[in-house]
Amino acid sequence: MTEVVQAPHRSIRNPLAGMDDRRRQMVILAIVVVLALVYPLIYRPLSNAIPAVPWPGTAVLVVCATFAILALGLNIVMGFAGLLDLGYVAFYAIGAYTTAFLASSHFGVHISWWIVLWIAVAAAAIFGVMLGAPTLKLRGDYLAIVTLGFGEIVRLVFRNLGDITIALPAILGGAVLVGPNANLTGGNVGINPIDPPIIPIPGPWGASIVFSNQNVIASWYLVLALLAITFFICRRLRDSKLGRAWMAIREDETAAAAMGINTVTTKLLAFSLGASFSGFAGAFTGAYNTAIFAETFSYNVSILVVIIIILGGIGSLRGVVIGAFALLYVDRTLLPWLGDNIVNAPMHDLGVSTGQQILADFKLTTYNYLIFGIVLVIMMIRRPEGLFPDASAKAEMHGVGIAAEVTGAGDVELAELAELETVTLDDPEPLPEAEPPPDAEPPMSELPPGSASPPPPSSAGPGTQA
Amino acid sequence: MSAMAAATEPAGDLLVATGCTKRFGGLVAVQNIDFTIPRGSIVSLIGPNGAGKTTFFNMITGLYVPTEGKITFDGVDITGDKPHEVVRVGIARTFQNIRLFGNMSAEDNVLVGLHHRLKGRWFGAILKPPSIIREEEEAQARAQELLDLVGLGRRRETLARNLPYGDQRRLEIARALATEPKLLLLDEPTAGMNPEETRRLTDFVRELRTRLGLTVLLIEHDMKVVMGISDRVTVLDHGEKIAEGSPAEVRADARVVEAYLGRGATSEG
Is the model's pLDDT at A447 over the cut of 70? Predict the structure, then answer.
């Protein structure tokens, strides 16, 4: 009816807006990539030129990127498939220990890191299935508790297998199967050193690029490449049939099954593919630090990754990556800087003058989780969809208006939309005695009119039948 | 009934349930039901609230495993099959309380229905070879067809939860049709609809049968719909089948009248 109005409306708003959006995104992406590549080279001059700003060091960025990989992996499990996993650190640990076992003097195995990386990925994926299989029937809180336990078990196993003796009972001869006092995992001391990734440079000098914390800039490019691969794969998965199946399960598992989705294999794929990325992160971290300790893989790491996802925008790839960089930057650079330059000294003075030891010893960095907790609570109240949410998440939290805009439902005439909604809102229930449709058969003659008309839950029909 | 009977092909029974019983602990929800759905027919399942209609639905679609009894579909025993396996043999359903994927677009909802027809695997999703790209394009075209069929062609991008109620019902049917079923199970499709919407939906179900050759099993409370559309009506009460036959026969059945009148005042509503 309003073709004339609609046509310009469509041509002005949708295609152009869509194109602008895409172009803008490409430009932003290009800028981000260039900045990421250049930053380590300009970090020194930059921080010398403008010392008032707490610039993150490249080593901090490496940690940020590692956590971005972890967050993208967990985002598959939590953001796409909607499975609350609080033990994600376990796969990180498994990836790191796999690397340590296969590329260190601990067992005397020295496989090239470039191969070990994929073994670590496979190991994490296999353990993902091992965690997923028994927990398939669990949802929400129950799944959270089991995964939390799994995370702790893995950490304790790595810690305690540093000194183990397994022997048959005395009745069976008492033969020692493992040990005595075998050191499988290095225990509390961990495994050190681990071979870092190396690319030999051809030529007469016998030089090579070593990607360890001795060469932070090279490592930054390596972890950036890993992050790019992870991001790319996550995006492909999200936009695929499998991604839709995950989201369907997240939305309504029963309905998903009723539409032909095998929920068992689909959830296991979420667990294993999600876990495999932490294999990336684990293999990188182990080799980059050239050492690992069981205590690195504590429950805090799982929680930190969950906070990253929620802060960045659950389900949103871009949001999760930005969340990782933001949170780890705050944790590793901003809080120490704020503490050293602004907060710690006055608190110390205050503590000394009032005789409060707790204030005299004040270190802002020790309160990082308190601060994250407060931020999280504020986020839940003010912006539950996260800082950089998906279109759908934004719609979920803020209702119809935004959704129509974001999803580009602009080609539906607004008048029509309003009309339809008025109908459904004004007339939510069928009228018991409305005029019969023109071509419908007459109501059942033997039954009273009340039961011949639709008996909706709140209709007065049944009462009048009595 | 009159015109509909002619359309029914006497090609045997598509679904046969024999001696189906479902107990939840001590509660017998469905008791020893024999039930058949002739190919190409529209069969309605009616009965007062709590009569076991939805439980019976859930047994057919694999959400519940029958305590006793056997269900065969198109000659294949599907007793105890998982829901996704039941979809694959050709049974699709809608839900009494609409269960769309609310935060997914209308198109994505239908694409989920197409899921088991697509061959791509997870590594295909990552590598995206031409075959997957083509498959995905075909799926999108098919989804558009289905959305057009139910009159939602222009709501492709709209989130399911933002659709008006009637459109949600229709989207649920489109999603079910995407699985390419032989048998479509509709659980109270006109619940909450006004008379005009109800009439349109009834016409639509008839049209589906003629155009797609579907067989339809309907749970419905609206007697006008039931009597107008059904070839056969089965009446459940307290988990037992108390009557079966043409709408006219069922209407005349003393037990049916009693079930509705006797229970109506106390339990319905």
Answer: no
Of A133, A142, A130, the closest CA to residue A84 belongs to A142
Closest residue in A to B248 (Cα–Cα): A444
- Is residue A457 within 8 angstroms of chain B, CB to CB? yes
SS (H, E, C) A144-156: HHHHHHHHHHHHH
Nearest to A430 among B122, B154, B194 (CB): B194
Closest CA to B31 of B11, B56, B49: B56
Tokens, residue B158: 């709209």
Q: Which residues of B touch A241 (CB under 8 A)?
A: 111, 115, 118, 120, 125, 136, 139
CB contact under 8 A, A454 and B113: no
Strands (E) located in A148-286? 164-167, 176-182, 198-200, 208-210
What b/e sequence results for B34-63 when a residue is b if at least 16 CB atoms lie within 10 Å of its CB, and e otherwise? ebbbbbbbbbbbbbbebbbbbbbbbbbbbb
Distance (Å, whole) CA B234 – CA B74? 20
pTM of the model: 0.82
Enter the tokens of residue A429: 């229930």
Lowest mean pLDDT among A200-214, A393-407, A436-450: A436-450
Q: In this predicted complex, what is the ipTM?
A: 0.88
B190 touches B198 (CB < 8 A): yes
Average pLDDT over residues A167-174: 79
Contact of B37 with B44, CB cutoff 8 Å: no
* Nearest-angstrom CA–CA distance, A196 and A328: 23
CA distance A77 to A101: 27
